[in-house]
């Protein structure tokens, strides 16, 4: 059961590491998106538009709860990978344990705060009347399981930090499989409707957690007994990564809402076209979306080992891999643009937007990928606040003004083009910041305490271990 620290990313071909971690991470992510889409399809088959709308409103609130889990998982991956790179498994286990404790605590507190205020919160996202009541029933079931998903995300991040992309992929696949099987049984066979979809998700989260905890404990012995003194000591390091990551995650739906608002000016066809594009992106470009979490452990291990040359090479290999994948995916989209439009029965403005995206505009996903690679460098080199600023800048200043300007000149297509140009500009800024950071990762005057010192932390851990 004992495990010796294995900083596998400090050796070997970095492009192979980047490709393997990105592809395995994307498989799990694609499975999750596919099941989310199946959820919507099954609920829609009930023939009540209000149920689908209620699920949509509930998902909006669930996303903000998930944002905290995502932030903590990013903290776990960065800290554990950095400790392993420094060949300090004591620190790695300590960080994994402390972040897991915070994920459990957060998973308990969020439902306790949200459930008594569901009427108010649902009102903020526009849910009223029967739809609000349906969404409330859905959330009463699913919110308490936030603790399951949070601990599962942290465990998966820890497995990935140890360099095992294959085992880190299985929990998402297991959860997606359980959800896909239970959805039709609970929704239709047992006649539970929307509540059946909620219970399917809860059981799927439990399956994901079990599949994540087992290898983390049995294969890597990644956790140890929790000690209050170590929780107090590590709180600052965990929160300084987790909170900026949470804020950066929340920026994404804000940008999507801005684009949808601008598209609405050009009619329902334009909004429908944008909705289809938003469904295509997670499936076709899941590899790009997975980049930040995938290459984070590679950067973290090499940074912990003091191999800044390999950190820089990882960064550029991440960009190369992104470019190759986006070119290939964009070519496939271009060839299939007509069938795709036909499948979604896209007409008029909606079809024009799809033709534009599945043509040359899909290539700009490279710049989104560049931002994700840069975010991985910020989080794992100890300056996660930059991911917050870059993401919010891209989703606000890099979206709203340019979308308005593009729309004024080119209509609905201009909104899409303006958003893409904003991505190009902020990708350039993100890459520039990353390269400066890689040259001198401890130069940020805002976060000087992030310089990794294995000896300092190790001594503190031994003190905690004796307490």
The number of E-state strands comes to 0
Average pLDDT level? 86
Helical content stands at over 70%
Please give the domain count: 1
Which terms summarize this structure?
0% strand, 20 helices, 467 residues, single chain, globular, mainly alpha
Write a compact overview of the structure shown:
With 467 residues, the protein is mainly α. It has 20 helices and no strands.
Describe this structure in words.
This protein is an all-alpha fold. The protein has one domain (9-450). Helices cover 81% and strands 0% of the residues. It has helices at residues 14-44, 49-85, 89-114, 118-124, 129-142, 146-161, 165-189, 193-218, 228-263, 268-284, 286-289, 291-304, 308-335, 337-343, 348-357, 365-380, 385-395, 400-410, 412-439, 454-466. It is globular, with a radius of gyration of 22 Å. The protein starts with 13 loop residues before the first helix and ends with a helix. The model is unreliable at 445-463 (pLDDT under 50).
Per-chain topology:
Elements: H1 14-44, H2 49-85, H3 89-114, H4 118-124, H5 129-142, H6 146-161, H7 165-189, H8 193-218, H9 228-263, H10 268-284, H11 286-289, H12 291-304, H13 308-335, H14 337-343, H15 348-357, H16 365-380, H17 385-395, H18 400-410, H19 412-439, H20 454-466
Helix pairs in contact: 1-7, 1-10, 1-12, 1-13, 2-3, 2-5, 2-6, 2-9, 2-12, 3-6, 3-9, 4-5, 5-8, 6-7, 6-8, 7-8, 9-17, 9-18, 10-15, 12-13, 12-16, 13-16, 16-17, 16-19, 17-19, 18-19
